[in-house]
Design a protein that fits this description.
alpha+beta, Glycosyltransferase, Immunoglobulin-like, 2 domains
């Protein structure tokens, strides 16, 4: 359940539309005699682990069955830890196939599947709090990430980083210099290898999540091992892959030049994801956000949510539809905008985060639809203009990223454990000019819930928060203070408490930690002029 109302009233329809998109995208499959639920891709009626793991960030509030998709992919895991990309039980639109068999597929050139399984499992565990399920599933998650760190197709031992074939960001076909007559998905003796930042940010995050899950089960040595693995990868990646403005799209291990392509300037879609996954330091995050703002000022596109910018020359990946501005080759993705907004809220660019959400709010309010990608002029994708078999108007992948930014960034509710037992509460409503907001979020499986009411009483120079959650929960308050104001006093249930001032770029935050011991609390923040 997601309930969200504000003084302006404009964010509620956005929330409701995204939830409707996700309802339309929920698949029910019969796999090996088991009913499996998962969120489908907007351009294919298959259950792709990649899309599902991102959409689950919101889907777990709406649908109770969050474990069956993870269980299904784990059940098909190879002995070496490898995981499939997707499963389907009906032919694709336009296919000559008539069979309705169960088909599992792994695209060889992709290196991002295993860490996606870890993320999906972590989100499912947060929503259920099921320790027995976690204990049974964790060995498979460990094998999956260990596969990425050891298999010669996935790991570059010289640099200690994840490698892959030369794809466009995290997409599933690679550059062959014309050796393939269409899109190529297979690794060969002629594959162009390199290091892609998105794989490394995903593995870094997954290592940290594995550590959290091991720690939950009391397995501290394993937790520490994964923290150490992740920290080492983060250090190496940030030294080698960050170019001072953003993460280099593809650090080449196999020398190759693509004629007519300004590869050094290519800003690709996993840059804001690297911020939200924690790979980027605050300084790196600021540089990336400034780069996106710069490109927003110079682009002719309606938004700077590029698949990649500048694009590759038309058709060089084997399909003439992949011209500049189309699909992943320079198309505009709400998925990128959502990740960008979430990153902006966290790193002191709150106005930019609000502007990004506002652009998307207007986009879907006008059409009532959301697409995986758009041409720079705002024309939505279609089957005729894409390499994909479908172009659903209920894109749950991008729309859920936008709602993720709204709920965790603007509304500021982040579960730091499971079942909302430890919450980071970071309301940033003053950045959107909202004087009142009510937020309530519940996991559909467990019913665990957390919510609050926010009031900015300008004439009384104070902010009030009424919290409601688990019977006992730790709350880490990180409240955005209105511009030009200072914090005079903070009271929790009528008792004054200590607090810290925290400057994030030009924004002032109030930090304080306390407990909900009866499921409810009242916080009053008195403000003073600077």
């Amino acid at each position: 359940m997601i309930l969200l109302t504000t003084s302006s009233g404009k964010w509620t329809p956005l929330c409701e539309r995204v939830c409707a998109f996700l309802d339309a995208d929920l698949l029910e499959l019969n796999l090996d005699g088991q009913t499996v639920h998962g969120y489908r891709s907007p351009d294919s009626p298959s259950l792709w682990l990649r899309d599902h793991s991102d959409m689950l960030r919101i889907g777990r509030y709406l649908h109770a069955d969050v474990k069956s998709a993870v269980d299904a992919f784990v059940a098909q895991q190879a002995r070496n830890g490898r995981v499939f990309d997707f499963v389907m039980t009906t032919p694709l639109s336009g296919s000559t196939e008539r069979e309705n068999w169960e088909k599992w597929v792994r695209v060889p050139v992709e290196a991002d599947v295993e860490y996606r399984l870890v993320k999906a499992a972590y989100l499912a565990w947060q929503a259920t709090g099921d320790a027995d399920w976690l204990r049974a599933t964790l060995p498979a998650l460990d094998r999956a990430l260990s596969y990425t760190l050891t298999h010669p197709w996935r790991w570059d031992a010289e640099h200690g980083l994840v490698k892959r074939a030369y794809t466009i960001d995290t997409w599933d076909f690679d550059y062959t210099a014309g050796r393939a007559d269409w899109l190529n998905f297979q690794i060969t003796d002629q594959t162009y290898w390199g290091l892609f930042h998105g794989d490394n940010s995903g593995v870094y995050e997954a290592a940290q999540l594995l550590a959290r899950m091991y720690r939950e089960l009391g397995e501290q040595p394993e937790a520490e091992r994964w923290v150490e693995i992740g920290d080492g990868l983060r250090q190496r990646a940030n030294v080698l892959l960050f170019n001072g403005r953003f993460y280099t799209h593809f650090y080449k291990l196999t020398p190759v030049t693509i004629p007519g392509c300004n590869e050094a300037e290519q800003l690709s879609l996993s840059n804001p994801m690297a911020i939200n996954r924690g790979l980027a330091t605050h300084e790196i995050a600021v540089a990336i956000l400034q780069e996106y703002q710069k490109r927003a000022r110079t682009t002719e596109a309606f938004a700077e949510w590029f698949g990649i910018d500048p694009p590759f020359p038309d058709g060089v990946f084997g399909d003439p539809k992949l011209k500049g501005g189309a699909y992943i080759n320079g198309g505009i993705f709400p998925l990128v905008g959502g990740e960008l907004a979430r990153a902006a809220f966290e790193h002191g660019f709150e106005t930019y985060g609000v502007q990004t959400l506002e652009t998307y709010r207007r986009l879907i309010a006008d059409s009532g639809a959301s697409y995986l990608w758009y041409f720079p002029d705002g024309t939505p994708c279609s089957v005729e203009t894409s390499t994909s078999p479908e172009a659903s108007p209920t894109d749950g992948w991008g729309s859920s990223a936008m709602l993720y930014a709204l709920l965790e960034g603007l509304a500021g509710v982040q579960d730091r454990s499971h079942s909302f037992r430890r919450v980071r509460l970071a309301p940033r409503w003053v950045a959107a000019g909202e004087e009142y907001a009510r937020v309530q979020i519940s996991y559909a499986d467990s019913g665990a819930t957390f919510g609050y009411e926010f009031r900015h009483l300008k004439n009384q120079h104070r902010i009030e928060l009424l919290l409601e959650g688990a019977s006992e929960a730790e709350v880490e308050l990180h409240l955005l203070v209105p511009p030009g104001r200072e914090i005079a006093q903070v009271a929790w249930d009528g008792k004054e408490i200590t607090f810290q001032r925290n400057n994030v770029e030009n924004s002032l935050y109030l930090n304080a930690t306390n407990w909900l011991k009866s499921g409810k609390a009242r916080i009053e923040v008195r403000l003073a002029s600077e």
